[in-house]
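[agent] plan:
  1. take the single chain provided in the ticket
  2. run structure prediction with default settings
  3. attach structure tokens to the ticket
  4. add a short note for the reviewer (M.T.)
[agent] executing step 1
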Amino acid sequence: MEEKRQNVIVEKTEHFADRIIKMYSYLLNERRCNNQIVELKQVKRSGTSIGANTAEGQYAQTKADFLTKMTIALKEANETRFWLHRLHAGGTLSDKEHESIINDIEEIINILVKVTGTTKKNLENTR
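[agent] step 2 finished; step 3 output follows
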């Protein structure tokens, strides 16, 4: 079976998931940030889920299925932004660390908003 060519959102969300996993390990093991373990676990779960859903969406059975996966990815991205803000507010992420990773999640959110909006419009036009 021929492998689908990677697209921008899949590449960005895979890279972001890798970054979240590294951040989680670093904060837990190197900085010993056990005071925000709940937030760390939540950001790891939601931050990696974004990529899982965009990857799954690439092999969706229908456009509606694709839209569902991209919408879930968008919701997970928004949740990830929330937890990153909590880690920053709690002092676990420095201003520089926070700004860097927030820029990444904002870019992902913007792309997913466009993808879901375009897909909704295309689905409405086929009805």
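[agent] step 4 note for reviewer: The CA atoms of residues 105 and 126 lie 31 Å apart.
[agent] ticket updated
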